[in-house]
């Protein structure tokens, strides 16, 4: 485009440029006219020659702010219940960060924090109002529907695997737990999960969950399975309670019968043991007596061989002592007068009367006490005995 086209006059001005003046900028610009390029550049150079407002201190302050912000992003704190995993360009570093202050080169390096305390995942929603949650309804091995509420206690053992092997580790634990519980309950009768074998079911479920999450490399350890509540569906709750009460009555009757049987059996065993002990004692007593009699007979026989007459007389006296010692008798000595037993002698009064002791007879009715009888050395002599 020719320069004179911008003059507005249509003609060429030898002394002017496109804005009505020479390109060299000679001459002052008329008031209200359009500024030329040279003037604009000159003004810019003048402004940059004056420098940035604030000068050097503004640059230092900006640099300090940037450094402080970088340090705030580079220094991080790990709590006692946490473990930090540093990432360099998104790749985890082999070393872990534990409790305390740590430093990393941000933004080249970043850190992910993992809570290593025990976590709890609850499954099922059994309530007292007989409302069942869909995630807790399970089919048992005997075709009964049960509503199970249980909790899974787990903790992180490998933070790197926990962060990068599975997208949602908590949901993975929940899904594996629910699947394992349904598998175990489906193989067992409903009575096991209600009362009989909850501990065995918990142990089996824990093993299945641990094996499943280990196969995915989740880096989680299952510490315990707690079965909190088990209830039938609301539609059959009343009938189930009635069955439970009947089973409890059955067990109570069985326990009472077992207790009674044990009591009778214990008494019978005690009586049998007592009879055996009595028989053994009687046997020992009879055997000892027989052995004693045999030994006594042998010793008497040995003495008889040595002195037959003395032994014979001794045996006679001992025999008479045994025969007459326990009988009621009155030995009467004839004396010198030879009158024998007097007619008025009250022989029954000398015998002990049964019952209370008899009163003492008057001394006037009792005869004078006879003299002591004499015993002959002749074994064939028989004393006079009155009964």
In terms of topology, how is this protein built?
Layout (H helix, E strand, L loop, with lengths): L36 H13 L6 H19 E4 L3 E7 L2 E7 L2 E4 L5 E7 L3 E5 L13 E3 L5 E12 L2 H6 L4 H19 L2 H7 L1 H18 L4 E12 L5 H70 L1 H18 L62
Antiparallel strand pairs: 1-4, 2-3, 2-5, 6-8, 7-8, 8-9
Helix pairs in contact: 4-6, 7-8
Could you characterize what this model shows?
The chain has 387 residues and is of the alpha+beta class. Among the domains are: 58-115, no CATH class; 119-232, Band 7 domain (Tetrahydropterin Synthase, Chain A), CATH 3.30.479.30. It has eight helices and nine strands. The strands form three sheets. Strands 6, 7, 8 and 9 form a four-stranded antiparallel sheet that branches. It has a three-stranded antiparallel sheet with strand order 3-2-5. A two-stranded antiparallel sheet has the order 1-4. A hairpin with a 5-residue loop joins strand 7 and strand 8 (145-156). Helix 4 (169-187) packs across helix 6 (198-215) and helix 7 packs across helix 8 (308-325). The protein is elongated, with a radius of gyration of 64 Å. The N and C termini lie far apart (188 Å).
Q: Unreliable runs, pLDDT <50, ≥5 residues?
A: 1-31, 128-132, 357-387
Query: Tally of extended strands?
Result: 9
Coarse shape: elongated
Question: What's the helix-strand series?
Answer: HHEEEEEEEEHHHHEHH
At the fourth level of CATH, the homologous superfamily of the domain at 119-232 is Band 7 domain
Distance between the ends = 188 Å
Gyration radius, in Å: 64 Å
**Tally the helices: what do you get?**
8
Approximately how much helix is present in the residues?
A: 40-55%
CATH third-level topology of the domain at 119-232: Tetrahydropterin Synthase, Chain A
What share of residues are in beta strands? 15-25%
CATH class of the domain at 119-232: Alpha Beta
**SS-based structural class?**
alpha+beta
